[in-house]
Amino acid sequence: MASPAGTSPTDSPAPVRANTAPRTRRTDRWWLPPLLTTLGLATFVIYATVRSFMRTDYWAAEHHYLTPFYSPCLSDSCVAGSSHFGTPIGELPVFIPLAFLSLPFLLGFRLTCYYYRKAYYRSIWMAPPACAVGEPHERYTGETRLPLILQNVHRYFFYVALVITLINTYDAILAFGGENGFGIGLGNVVLLLNVVLLWCYTLSCHSCRHVTGGRLKHFSRNPVRYRLWTQVSKLNTRHMEFAWLTLGTLVLTDLYVWLVSSGAIADLRFIN
Ligand code: FES
């Protein structure tokens, strides 16, 4: 809709929410999905925060399993063997996670993800919590001003996430060569499954879809990009699924490495 003469869309007052009562006439359990989403996200955030600051049992030396929560480990504070890219950084104080270079970007990538935005806008921000349910906020400004306008940096987090996924893949490959040489254990399967799903999540990103096929006027003149865009688009339809699956596999992978590294369980070996 055109703006009144002399004004731009950003000059317009923020739309005011309709004052409807009652809040909803829905009689089903509309509150269940937002509640489950909040619980799922909170569980992951608490687990990841605790583990990132623990600084123990993140490297299973015998099988060269490194948890993704500590990768890349680049400081002198990392245990011997866990630094696949050397230790260019000196000792880190205890309040800085050892993977301080990757964690902020991974967190930023997830926080600004289109799917997670939808999830936490609805479940935590309650804007709105469900279809046909009123929200507690009186005004709606969307992502047009601070702080939510910062969500637009998602495309840049995507490029960093590609690099971090490559690093996780490298860690998973190195884990096939433990202290006794080549071998395959359940830990390798867990690490591999995690990186495959991380690739699915990263490549199904909406920014990736734009990178491969965005701004093209003629697909017929760009057959390679068209083919890539087609494949990414297929993955993109399952982005929400990958978002949840990777939260699960990240926790599972870390937990498995933690248990093996601490000696609570022995790695199940298939070869060697
Ligand atoms: Fe979810 Fe980019 S849209 S990771």
Give, in spatial order, the strands making up the sheet with the most strands.
1-2
- End-to-end span in angstroms? 68 Å
Please give the count of helices: 8
Overall domain count: 1
Mean pLDDT value: 92
Approximate shape: globular
Low-confidence stretches: 1-9
How much strand? under 5%
Q: In terms of structural class, how would the helical and strand content be classed?
A: mainly alpha
Q: Are any ligands bound, and if so which?
A: FE2/S2 (inorganic) cluster
User: Helical residue percent?
Assistant: 40-55%
Task: State Rg.
Answer: 22 Å
Strand tally is: 6
Helix/strand order: HEEHHHEEEHHHHE
Largest sheet: 2 strands, antiparallel
Which key phrases capture this entry?
single chain, 272 residues, mainly alpha, 5% strand, globular, disordered N terminus, binds FE2/S2 (inorganic) cluster
List the helices and strands and how they pair.
Blueprint: H1 32-54, E1 59-60, E2 65-66, H2 103-111, H3 114-123, H4 154-174, E3 177-178, E4 181-182, E5 184-185, H5 186-203, H6 206-213, H7 223-236, H8 239-262, E6 269-271
Antiparallel strand pairs: 1-2, 3-4, 5-6
Helix pairs in contact: 1-3, 1-8, 2-4, 4-5, 5-8, 6-7
Region (Disordered): 1-22
Biased composition (Polar residues): 1-11
Transmembrane segments: 30-50, 94-116, 156-176, 182-201, 242-266
Give a verbal description of the structure:
- The chain crosses the membrane at residues 30-50, 94-116, 156-176, 182-201, 242-266.
- This is Succinate dehydrogenase.
- Residues 1-22 are annotated as: Disordered.
- Residues 1-11 have a biased composition (Polar residues).
- Keywords: Membrane, Transmembrane, Transmembrane helix.
- There is one protein chain.
- This protein is mostly helical and 272 residues long.
- The protein has one domain.
- It has 8 helices and 6 strands; from the N terminus they run H-E-E-H-H-H-E-E-E-H-H-H-H-E.
- The protein has helices at residues 32-54, 103-111, 114-123, 154-174, 186-203, 206-213, 223-236, 239-262; strands spanning 59-60, 65-66, 177-178, 181-182, 184-185, 269-271.
- A two-stranded antiparallel sheet has the order 1-2. A two-stranded antiparallel sheet has the order 3-4. It has a two-stranded antiparallel sheet with strand order 5-6.
- Strand 3 (177-178) and strand 4 (181-182) form a beta hairpin.
- Helix 4 packs antiparallel against helix 5 (186-203).
- The chain starts with 31 loop residues before the first helix and ends with a strand.
- Residues 1-9 have low confidence and may be disordered.
- The structure holds FE2/S2 (inorganic) cluster.
- FE2/S2 (inorganic) cluster binds next to helix 3, helix 4 and helix 6.
